[in-house]
Design a protein that fits this description.
About 0% of the residues lie in helices and about 40% in strands. The termini are close together. Strands 1, 2, 28, 29, 30 and 31 form a six-stranded mixed sheet that branches. Strands 15, 16, 17, 18 and 19 form a five-stranded antiparallel sheet that branches. A four-stranded antiparallel sheet has the order 3-4-5-6, with no helix packed on it. By secondary structure, it is mainly β. The protein has one domain: 6 Propeller (Neuraminidase).
Length: about 525
């Protein structure tokens, strides 16, 4: 259940990349990008939906971009395997796609006890020259006893079988929503990698695990001092090594907690803002999970979907807050994609920040999904947009359509509604903006890349959600990577959640986690 994520995950500035879910064969009215296929679903097990690749995440280090995504989505959680794609030239060309080894018996790992795997998150550890992809494996009963981490020491070309993060100390262990980041700063904690997760078996208790050896071994996950509960946390590392983790709490708020000692302990969460959320039409699986990024000076930006600026909360905007210390947060601001009377519904943001910029000169990029008409009933058409700011969110340029429209019948179907992913990703490479998305089209699903030339420089990578075309089967869903967006920055990640039916904070079903 992942979407792609953005800028601060990359260690280099330049191009930006975002991965989104779309449907093949669908017209892209107003879009100014082209598509290149980078992956397709090769699996044939009858228990999942095929030609489906979704919930991608990406990260960029220098000119290397690595994307990861679910392949072969199950209706009630997880996928047959986790796929990966790599570009060594900032998204201009892509290597042959691959699929992580040793994951599930559906993917050919006959000795594995796991049927499915979900929630891929990619990071790079500069101190150990190692790429990491974390994910959660599901047993046949859909419980999750551990978090997997696959490693690559050859710049993302090949990957090891997974190592397991130790389970937390808990009477019941059933894990969810992992996210991994590494300290690539010059702080005393350089080379520490941090994985956020929550234990659904303990009421979504927020947990953190740390590795200091390039992901070979990991500490037993520990809670915050406040035993905070929530999901969708995204760790971010400041230049001094402080780690700030914005997350969606279970009390209807965006909150954040932090560590100042390299992950030995985690402080009690503080409030960023309350949430007001308009339930998205068509039963689409989404919720106000945060998408967070950090600029070169350590200022943290957090974005989510929220309806507070709309009369009677009739549709969502993308809103954001910022902080220099993870403790004190600015008033919530609206991203002015369109007017507050437009009737457009915006959701699943992927926020990116160019790490070579900061403060009032910070370049922000935002990828998001939207309905042109919030009250679309049974005729909802999903589209993907991008907008950027050259000055830390004080002003925003014109929005660009990246993909769509897509019918909800054309994307992966899940027990929590049609799904493109719980988050999106965006990042900065060195030469141009890039965005990725899911696409469904006649006959097969594929991961594609879209580009428009190089109107400037800069770019990064991102996440997104899946989509299909009306009348097509789930097997036509495709994952696409988009490059060549306008020079400002693109977007990053957002996550998932569902089931809010009107104004107010979302309500997560207590009967099952979102995987």
């Amino acid at each position: 259940m992942t979407l792609l994520r953005c800028a601060s995950r990359a260690t280099v500035t330049g191009a930006v990349a975002a991965v989104l879910v779309t449907t093949a064969g669908v017209g892209v009215a107003g879009a100014n990008v082209t598509l290149t296929r980078v992956s397709t679903d090769p699996f044939t097990n009858t228990t999942s939906q095929h030609a489906t690749e979704l919930e991608p995440d990406t990260f960029a280090n220098g000119s290397t971009v690595v994307g990861t995504f679910q392949v072969g989505r199950f209706f009630n959680g997880g996928a047959s395997d986790i796929g990966f794609v790599r570009s060594g030239d900032g998204g201009t060309t892509w290597d042959t796609p691959g699929f992580l080894p040793g994951m599930t018996f559906n993917s050919g790992a006959t000795s594995s006890p796991f049927e499915r795997v979900s929630d891929p998150s990619v990071a790079f550890d500069a101190a150990h020259s190692t790429w990491l992809i974390s994910s959660i494996p599901l047993l046949p009963n859909t419980s999750v006893p551990t978090v997997f981490v696959n490693r690559s020491t050859d710049d993302g070309r090949t990957w090891s079988p997974p190592v397991s993060i130790p389970p937390p100390v808990s009477r019941v262990v059933d894990l969810d929503k992992n996210w991994t980041v590494c300290d690539n700063t010059q702080s005393q904690f350089r080379g520490h990698c941090y994985t956020e997760l929550d234990n659904f078996g303990a009421g979504d208790l927020e947990l953190m695990s740390t590795s200091t050896d390039g992901g070979v071994t990991w500490s037993t996950p520990i809670p915050t001092a406040g035993h905070d509960k929530g999901l969708g946390g995204q760790p971010l590392v400041q230049p001094n090594g402080t780690v700030i983790v914005p997350f969606e709490s279970l009390n209807g708020k965006i909150e954040a907690f932090r560590s100042t000692d390299g992950g030995q302990s985690w402080q009690k969460g503080v409030e960023v803002s309350s949430i007001r959320f308009h339930g998205v039409a068509g039963g689409l699986r989404t919720s106000p999970l945060p998408s967070a990024e950090i600029d070169g000076a350590g200022n943290v930006y957090v974005a989510w979907e929220d309806c507070r600026f709309r009369a009677q909360c009739t549709s969502n905007d993308i809103v954001f807050s910022r902080s220099s210390d993870g403790l004190n947060w600015s008033a919530v601001a609206r991203v002015p994609i369109d007017s507050v009377t437009s009737g457009v519904d915006h959701f699943i943001p992927g926020l990116g920040v160019d790490p070579a910029t900061s403060g009032s000169g910070a370049h922000l990029g935002l990828t998001y999904y939207f309905y042109p008409k919030a009250a679309c009933g049974g005729a909802c058409r999903l589209e993907v947009g991008f907008i950027s700011s050259p000055d830390g969110g004080a002003h925003w340029g014109a929005a660009t359509q990246l993909a769509g429209p897509m019918a909800l019948s054309e994307i992966a179907q899940t027990s929590q509604g049609p799904m493109v992913g719980d988050y999106i990703s965006r990042g900065d490479v060195r030469a141009e903006h890039a965005a990725g998305r899911r696409h469904a089209g006649p006959g097969d699903q594929r991961l594609e890349h879209e580009g428009r030339g190089r109107p400037g420089h800069r770019g990064r990578d991102g996440r997104s959600t899946p989509g299909h075309q009306k009348g097509l089967s789930i097997e036509r869903q495709q994952l696409l990577i988009a490059t060549g967006l306008p020079r400002r920055l693109p977007a990053r990640e957002a996550r998932w959640r569902c089931c809010a039916t009107g104004p107010g904070p979302p309500r997560r079903p207590t009967a099952r986690p979102y995987r």
